[in-house]
Amino acid sequence: MKKFLLITLLALSQFIVAQDKGKLTGLLTDKESNNEPLPFANVLIKGTDIGATTDFDGNYTIQVPAGTHIVQFSFLGYKTIEKSFTIKAGGTVTINQLMSAEEGVALDDVVIKTTTTKEKESALLLKQKNATVIVESIGAERLSKIGVSDAAAATTKISGVTKSEGSGDIYIRGLGDRYLSTTMNGLPIPSDDVANKNIDLGLFSTNIINNIGISKTYNTSGYSDQASGTVDITSKKYTRKGFSVSVNGGFNTAVIGLNSDFRSTLNMNDVTFGYYKKPFLLNDAIKYQGWDPITSDNSTNYGLSFNASYKFDIFGKELGIFATASHSKSFEYQEGEFRTYRANILDNAFPNLSYDPETALNDSPSVEQYITKINTTGYIRGDLKLNDNHKIGYNTLFVNTGKDNLYEQGRNGLGYVFDQQPQERGAFVRDQNYKQTIMFVNQLTGEHKLSENNKLTWAGGYNFILAEEPNRIRNEGIIFSDSEVTYADVSDFSQRKSTQRIEDNEFNAYIVDEYSFGKTESEYDDKPMKLNFGLNFRNKERAFSSQFVGVSTPGYTPGFPNSGFLVETVDNISNTFTDLSNYNEAANPMLRVIEQLPDAYSADMTNMAAFTNLNFGLNNKFSGNFGLRFERNEVNIAWNVKNYQGPDGQARVGSLSREYNSIYPSLNLKYQLNEKNSVRFASSLTQTLPEFKEFAPFQYEEPTGRVIQGNPDLERSKVINIDAKWEFFPSRDELVSGTVFYKNIKDPINLALTRGSSGNFEFNNTGERATVFGIEIESRLNIIENDDEKSLLSANFNITKMWFNQDLYTNFQYSNVEESGLQGASDFITNASLSFNSRTEKEFTATVSGNYASDKIFALGSPEDLVNSATLFNDEIIEKGFVSLDLVLSKEITENLIIKIVGRNLLNPDIQQTQKVTDFDNSGSGEINGVTNEVVQSYKRGSQLSFNFTYKF
């Protein structure tokens, strides 16, 4: 009983004492590390022993007796700061403080050990919370949790972002490749593909990514050529000494079913570690190199990588080095169907719609694709700290990637191609292509604190891209039976080899002078006003060439001996072309080599801009950014390509010049409702410039046979952007937000089917105006926390709903269709993930993540001719939505060893494109018998499972 009374009295006394106290809380940030959180700093109530140490995210909380006190903030080598405050019993006072170094004190070791990098999710959320402009980021910490291996997959984890499985393009708020821009450390990087404006983000492995930021609103410090947003990859740099090695292996479930019968193109005989060595000139390759694919015994995915970081002292200056290198190889197999329609009539089909399964010659799928990917990456970054006021950095990135693609249609004998000779049924197509891309990105950056209120930053870069298709092989044939195959005799280039080369050279630079001014509560606080003046420069040059060499190969007509060539199977084609006697003029039948004139275009683009913007904070609640940018854009292209007829009647040759001079304003406003809530507003005017490949009238044929061409008559699009956003930060690593946005696009650019019988796809200004209205909701919440308020179970969820409308010019109207959506735009996008972290000494984490993007337009429809547009037309092609699901399990075995199991695309959905086909009455009355939704392309990618072992030394 006495013990019970004693415990009760003690508890009561503690309660009474607690009622006389208030709570002092706040955040300490580090001026020496770009205002990042400062952990392990001391917070002390002067004259008492009451105090605390900031946590890893720079936060502190202490109980303080009611009254007036002086709080003291200190950290080794930093200025000690004292602030007076008054607190009431039961009340809360928040004091945030920026800490800076003592003059003349060297902080090298201290800063390195305590800096929280922008890989950490909480640090990125803090940056997002404090930023004047709207920006969303995903860091290396979260990428590791969800098992993302490259930047392309990483962006899809941000709200409103999705990736097209058909093209690989990234879409932000429904707007695709031409409407966004990509930078690395704030400098532009070129495209590796003639088909894209932006580089394939899959080339950037997570080994080199510190974080990826997506700015969906515009700020005048960036190039105006964007409408949906800018993707900026911040590369890794030295943070702490270390060395690690990773090894991974795995498989694709679709490949396993092939039982060591994985096939590759003939080119793989000449590939070593992803590097292709050309054994023959193109003309010689026709006769002296084979034409048949090869098989591979090993189709196991694997990867090797290492990271190393070290700090050197050079003449008393600190040099931090971070380096990484990786090599990987993966295999993928797809099977499915493919069809095209012209004016609602079947043009080709694999398999034919009216086929009898019993007539199949074998159990092969109608469409097969074998893909081998090889990637080698090397990256090194050095950061030299001359002193506390002057820092210089340099980084270089090297990427060599190879993609071997073997594509076949109709191996089972069920193919159909309209008007093909010598017969339409039994059509067979094979396309072998190895694409190699070599990329160098070189960047030099500097940061100089000229005075207490003046900071100068600059950067310059040189980029080099070499993308080649050194030996593309295409055969078109007809399968009569399982022992008789002949060649399609449609043109002299139905059997051909070709080469393509793109070389890009680019110089770019920026310089920004920032001047801070205004009154502050403390001499250590940041000035509330920042005035920026800056210049941008970018010059990009491209040289493109393509060469076709065909073999005129007579096809065999049954009943007519010596009318053409016959082979036993589609895997025995080489003998026809490597038998030199077949080229003899006395031969019957005879082969003739036809060399087509090369296609080529050269292009250059020069961007020069001057800008100014003002970051302002009128009080602790209201802040913003207003800016103006003058930009001059000049584009020049000259071409010499087949199938081009100029306005003056001249064939093949043409050129264009475009010059745009405009002023682009931007306004970003932020109102801090309280410590955790804020509202934002943003408005800007931007543009969308057509890319080289959208201008140049070169025709590129995909393996499927689809042909995409540019359009010299294209004009730029002008875009008005408006955003309003609410943000709520429940804790340092939690977020709930909602956004409403609107875009008005003048002269929108879309990929559309062309008029006429070609069946090609062409880029066009398809309407006078298009509008986008959307709503985004995002949340990152901790569901279960431990006693230290660290998340055990957390959930990330975002959803975007959009409404699109585009008026169509008469040339694109058909069958009462006068309006359309935008090409590539999904009206509904959602991403979600659920993560568990054991928070134990040997940590175990598990994350399941999913993504869904609704149907999107792959290409707009068009009439075959304007007079008969009600009946002769091609409807739009729709890429169907699907759900993807990934799982990542990670376990820390020892302090140095981590094992990770990753499963991607676990649901393995059927990826489809569909097109509405209208059946008209044969009488010519225009009456409609019915409308069907036909599948024009479908395939499955298979699920990928991998096991990763990482050892840190």
Describe the structure.
The chain is mainly beta and about 950 residues long. The strands form nine sheets. It has a 22-stranded antiparallel barrel. A hairpin with a 4-residue loop joins strand 35 (about 600-615) and strand 36. The model is unreliable at about 1-20 and about 105-120 (pLDDT under 50).
Q: Percent range for helical residues? A: under 10%
Rg, rounded, reads 31 Å
What's the β-strand tally?
Answer: 58
Oligomeric state of shown chains? single chain
Percent strand equals: over 45%
What is the 3D shape?
elongated
Described by strand count, sense and barrel closure, the largest sheet is: 22 strands, antiparallel, barrel
Number of helices: 9
Low-confidence stretches: 1-18, 103-119
Cα(first) to Cα(last) distance is 58 Å
**Overall pLDDT metric:** 85
- Supply the helix-strand structural class: mainly beta
Short characterization:
By secondary structure, the chain is mostly beta strands. Helices cover about 5% and strands about 55% of the residues.
